[in-house]
Structures are given as structure tokens and as C-alpha cells.
Amino acid sequence: MGNKQTIFTAQQLDAYQDCTYFTRKEILRLFYRYRDLAPQLVPLDYTSAPDVKLPYELIGSMPELKDNPFRQRIAEVFSEDGEGNMTLDDFLDMFSVLSEMAPRDLKAYYAFKIYDFNNDDFLCKSDLEKTLNKLTRNELTEDEVRMVCEKVMDEADLDNDGRLSLEDFQHMIVRAPDFLSTFHIRI
Fold first, then answer.
1. What is each CA distance from 82 to 13, 67, 117, 161, 168, in whole angstroms?
2. CB 79 within 8 A of CB 90
3. Is 78 within 8 Å of 94 (Cβ atoms)?
């Protein structure tokens, strides 16, 4: 009735609710957040599922990501193209996983993917070094990085194969009570 704009069909909103940890109101708020990044590219009517993808440069410049040392990896992991360019679905997935409502196992799975820089489904010494250097913004010496990585491997590599599997990583995360409070973005 009246001039109310229809952004999504009821079925689309139901589907977004089913596959995220968001209410309809939060989904609409995130849609506007996505649209605000490039109003000239993102139509107000998504009922026909337009093929829109925002470039990484816009995604990475969002206040929620711009100061995060992992912003490029986060965008790459959540984007369908693997290069950080995001559809609305990718954008909603990213915010959903990084929301406070997402379960620990899901967060751990995506943290693992973000830290797996070479995309081989394991965290090797090189992945750990890159992760540590990003976390500390390159403030540790090479020796300090090496020592920390060795300590992590000693404690977390359950099968002693010199690399961490997702299972090893999840086992390590269980012992990190602050993981859930640090692996999120507020909307």
C-alpha cells in the first residue's frame, strides 16, 4: 500500500533469515549498508536478484574492516570469486559469521580459512608466520615470530605432522576463551 519500496520478496527475506543469524530488520539494515558503499551500482529493488558485485576496494574501506589487518583475507574468504569482490549474499554471509550470534565452530572454521593464506586446508609454518605478523603488525623480530610459531605447533599439532588441520585448530580455539569476543563485527 502507498509508496512503500519493495526491496526483497517475502521469500527472499525468509531465505536470508534461514541462512543467516539475522532478523528481517537486520537484513534490511545490512542491505542499506551494502548499498551505501555504491548507490550507483546497487539497485533498491532486489526482487529480480540482480547480478551486482562490489569491488574489494569498497568492501575493504568499510569502517568495520578498514583497520583490520586481515581485511583482504576476510574479503577473499567470504567472496564467491575469492578476490574480495562481494555480492550481497557474500556480504550477508560475512556479517553473519562475524556476528555475535554465530556459533564458535562456524567462527573457528572461517578463522582457519582466513589464516590459511596458501589455501591448502592446513595451517603451515608460513601461514602461522603471516598470521602472527598481521596480528602484531610486524612488531616482532624474526626470532620472536619463529619461537611463537614453534610453541603454537608444539601445543596444537595433535598428530605431529608439522601443520595444523582444522581439527587441530578447533581444539586450540576451545582453550581460547576470548576467541568468540574478538572474532566478530557489530552491525
1. 25, 21, 12, 28, 25
2. yes
3. yes
Q: How far apart are CA 144 and CA 167, in angstroms?
A: 26
Contact of 182 with 114, CB cutoff 8 Å: no
Return all residues near 94 (Cβ < 8 A) that are at least 6 apart. Answer: 74, 75, 78, 86
Identity of the amino acid at 138: N
pLDDT tens by residue, 57-97: 999 999 999 999 999 999 999 999 999 999 999 999 999 99
**Full-model pTM:** 0.92
Burial bucket for residue 104 (CB in 10 Å: 0-12, 13-18, 19+):
middle
What are the DSSP calls for 6-34, one per residue? --S-HHHHHHHHHHSS--HHHHHHHHHHH
